[in-house]
Amino acid sequence: MNIAADSLPLRPTPKVRGLPWLGSVLAMARDPAQFFVNCYRQYGPVCRLNVLGNPYVLIAGVEAANFLGTREGKECLRSKEFWEGLVAEYGATRTLTGVDGEAHKQLRDIMRNGYSKESIKGRYQELLAITDRCFTRDWPVGQLVPVVEGMQYMVVDQLGTILTGAAPLEYVKDIRTTILHILNVLVTRQRPKILLKRPKYKKAKARVFELGYQMIEQAKRRYGKVPEAERNLIDDIYAAHKETPEVMPASDLIVSLTGPYVAGLDTVANTTAAIVYTVLKHPEVKARVLKEVDELFAGGDNIDETALMKRIPSLQGAIMETMRLYPIAVAQMRCATKDFVFEGHQIKAGEMIYIGTSVPHFMSEYFPEPMKFDIDRYAKPRAEHMAPGAYSPYGRGPHTCLGKSLAEVQIALSMARVFYKLDLALEPENYTLKTKTAPTPGPAMDFKVRVKGYRH
Ligand code: HEM
Asked: Which residues bind heme (predicted)?
């Protein structure tokens, strides 16, 4: 709760102890989710910390998550500062993630339909066919397959085809290298700027631009010819450029058109890779999931789209539980637009803020036995995720994931298909997941599973 600064005495804000200049960077790099939980437990809902010489405020807990969605939160917080490095790197004027207020609303309106689950309505069978061809290509029987990489190709194949009309698989490595550098150096600032001088990065960025120009050409050819109902995200962005160039200038086309890959690739690939691990690691969960997916596809691939989620409650529980324990967005990053008081602590205009939205994921107050993988937490009457501010895998407030409804279907359908088609095993059987943290927390790139065969 936020109280006017003059009504109550302010509380002194504790400072997290860290190394000179490096500050908390090592602890954050080891396990950011746990680091933020520890800070919350040790220092309370507000503390100050240092990362590579830069000062930050951390606000955490359910109050912080809820604050993002309040009128006050919208007035006091903005995203610009965290994304301006990326915007400059693309030679753009702005990006959806880095604008707030009316300008943000305008961009979200342009992209809402293209990013929503409407974009895959009537196309579940097509998504399944894409997923199947990924198995044939990237998951050979008998082999140990790197899961995150396998998922990255699957996601680009799916998102490319559905959102943009083409699957640019030859660009997957370039997109990944570009995202990795930009997010690490310019957005989350966990790595030094010198890395952007690497020839490897420059080459990859040039290739992403090449992809962007191809997408512009493709959109140009389609403009005015595609019926309203068949327009995809690329068509909508290009139409906005033609019809309201002040909202979508030419300089912003590449960052907007390649946006689905920045937003969707690492997020979905890391999440689905983590789900492969959690399901294989818990045989009782695996048995329930296999039973469900076998029933789901027993009548063929032409499934009832509206009934999908209802038919796979255990898989849904496994997905939600994995997203609780392996959140890809541990905190949201914002800048204070003005002086304000949060939980009795003074925060000054211009201060950089981490909002530890994933902290409640690990709190026994909301999720009893928080480290236990329990897929039944989400069903009524328990519905533990429904406590306000407790569960935020897709973020909170005005920048809440625009692709959420699409991602939910994409993840559910992809995982249903993975477990229906492939007989996978951890190796060794008692393998414990190694994780990475930069730029997106998730399973380590060397996490592999054995493809023992096809189940169907
Ligand atoms: C596991 C899946 C995903 C997770 C957990 C996830 C999570 C998030 C989070 C936490 C944010 C908010 C960031 C912030 O407030 O700073 C966000 C924003 C966004 N996401 Fe996702 N995301 C996922 C998949 C996707 C997919 C598949 C797409 C579309 C292809 C997508 C599109 C977007 C967009 C466009 C935004 C920016 C929204 C805005 O700034 O207004 N996401 N996502």
From this structure: 401
Q: How many domains does the chain have?
A: 1
Residues 6+ apart with CB under 8 A from 338: 75, 76, 349
Q: Determine the average pLDDT of the residues in 217-234.
A: 93
Q: Is 13 inside any structural domain?
A: no
Q: Is 98 near ligand 1, meaning CB less than 6 Å away?
A: no
For residue 328, the CA-to-ligand 1 centroid distance in Å is 10
Query: Is the residue at 107 inside a domain?
Result: yes
- 159 CB under 6 A from ligand 1? yes
Average pLDDT, the chain: 94
User: What single string gives the DSSP state of each residue in 142-164?
Assistant: TSEEEHHHHHHHHHHHHHIIIII
122 burial type by CB count under 10 A (0-12 exposed, 13-18 middle, 19+ buried):
exposed
What atom in ligand 1 is closest to the CA of residue 159? 30
Cα separation of 296 and 308, whole Å? 8
pLDDT at 360: 98
pLDDT by residue (tens digit) across 48-66? 999 888 999 999 999 999 9
The residue with tokens 């989400």 is: 378
Residue 8 lies in a domain: no
Q: Is 6 a residue whose pLDDT tops 80? A: no
Residue 266 lies in a domain: yes
CATH code for the domain of 401? 1.10.630.10
φ, ψ (nearest 5 deg) of residue 299: -95, 15
Residues 6+ apart with CB under 8 A from 334: 77, 78, 79, 82, 352, 353, 355
Higher pLDDT, 26 or 240: 240
Domain of residue 369, residue span? 25-454
Positive or negative torsion for Cα 198, 204, 205, 210:
positive
**Does residue 145 carry a pLDDT above 70?**
yes
Substitution candidate for ligand 1 out of 267, 323, 324, 414 with most atoms within 8 A of CB: 267
Contacts of 125 (CB under 8 A, 6+ apart): 301, 302, 303
